[in-house]
């Protein structure tokens, strides 16, 4: 395996174009991926209920343990698997905000890189949690679509008809959301400033000819 080019920042598919710079990079928190994305607590509660259902009808603790033993083993394996998947999802994901786009490198077995230029983004939101982390869903412009399965678990839940990429369990989410909003606003302001404004200049004495269009300003 060849060494990574030091000129290419981690999480990006290639060097940044001139004038573009990285504003922020981060990964999802492993705890957030385990608890809120893969629902580790719900898995534990489900197995706890199943264990009680199998153990309570038995007369003594020994019989109850023998009856529920296989379920307890399955519970331990399931929780370990969910925790491992959550850790891997966090470890293999890199979110990048530049002055022009959002870049998401995601995927455990088959990593992919999603480029979301600000011109493709209609708006972005924030769902903050008590630990300071948060989810940042991104609504795309009409006509721009990414398959939900290509995004999961980095997608806003239940938005199957209009999939929305989502930066999951981002640390210090409020600060990141504020930075993203400022970057999008600045990029749009620069784009509007660079857009030529066409103004009509009537030409005296040239009746019947189409007006000339010149760049104003």
Explain this structure.
There is one protein chain. The protein is α+β, with helices and mostly antiparallel strands and about 220 residues long. It contains 5 helices and 10 strands; from the N terminus they run βαααββββββαβαββ. The strands form 3 sheets. A 4-stranded antiparallel beta sheet has the order 1-2-3-4. Strands 5, 6, 7 and 8 form a 4-stranded antiparallel beta sheet that branches. It has a two-stranded antiparallel ribbon with strand order 9-10. α2 (about 40-55) runs antiparallel to α3 (about 60-90). The longest helix has about 30 residues, at about 60-90. The chain is elongated.
Residues in helices, as a percent range: 25-40%
Beta strands, count: 10
Low-confidence stretches: 199-217
- Mean of pLDDT: 85
| Tally of alpha and pi helices | 5
- Describe the main β-sheet briefly: 4 strands, antiparallel
The Cα radius of gyration reads 26 Å
- Structural class given helices, strands, pairing? alpha+beta
Side by side, the strands of the main sheet go 1-2-3-4
Q: What gross morphology would you assign?
A: elongated
- Beta percentage is 15-25%
Helix and strand element order: EHHHEEEEEEHEHEE
How far apart are the first and last residues' alpha carbons, in Å?
Answer: 53 Å
Pick out its properties.
single chain, 217 residues, alpha+beta, four-stranded antiparallel β-sheet, 5 helices, 10 strands, 23% strand, disordered C terminus
Write the layout of secondary structure elements.
Blueprint: E1 22-26, H1 30-37, H2 40-55, H3 61-91, E2 94-98, E3 101-106, E4 112-117, E5 121-124, E6 127-128, E7 134-140, H4 148-151, E8 166-170, H5 173-194, E9 197-201, E10 212-216
Antiparallel strand pairs: 1-2, 2-3, 3-4, 5-7, 6-7, 7-8, 9-10
């Amino acid at each position: 395996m060849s060494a990574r080019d030091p000129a290419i920042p981690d999480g990006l598919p290639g060097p940044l174009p001139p004038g573009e710079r990285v504003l922020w990079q981060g990964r999802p928190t492993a705890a957030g991926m385990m608890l809120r994305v893969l629902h580790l607590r719900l898995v534990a509660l489900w197995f706890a209920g199943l264990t009680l259902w199998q153990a309570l009808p038995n007369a003594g603790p020994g019989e109850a343990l023998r009856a529920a033993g296989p379920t307890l083993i399955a519970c331990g394996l399931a929780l370990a698997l969910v925790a491992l998947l959550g850790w891997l999802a966090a470890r293999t994901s890199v979110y990048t905000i530049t002055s022009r786009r959002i870049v998401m490198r995601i995927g455990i077995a088959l990593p992919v890189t999603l480029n979301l230029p600000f011109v493709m983004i209609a708006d972005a939101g924030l769902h903050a949690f008590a630990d300071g982390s948060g989810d940042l869903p991104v609504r795309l412009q009409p006509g721009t679509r990414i398959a939900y399965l290509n995004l999961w678990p980095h997608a806003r839940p239940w938005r199957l008809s209009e999939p929305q990429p989502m930066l999951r369990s981002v640390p210090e989410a409020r600060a990141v959301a504020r930075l993203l909003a400022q970057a999008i606003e600045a990029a749009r302001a620069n784009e509007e400033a660079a857009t030529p404004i066409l103004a009509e200049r009537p030409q005296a004495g040239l009746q019947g000819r189409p007006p000339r269009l010149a760049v104003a300003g």
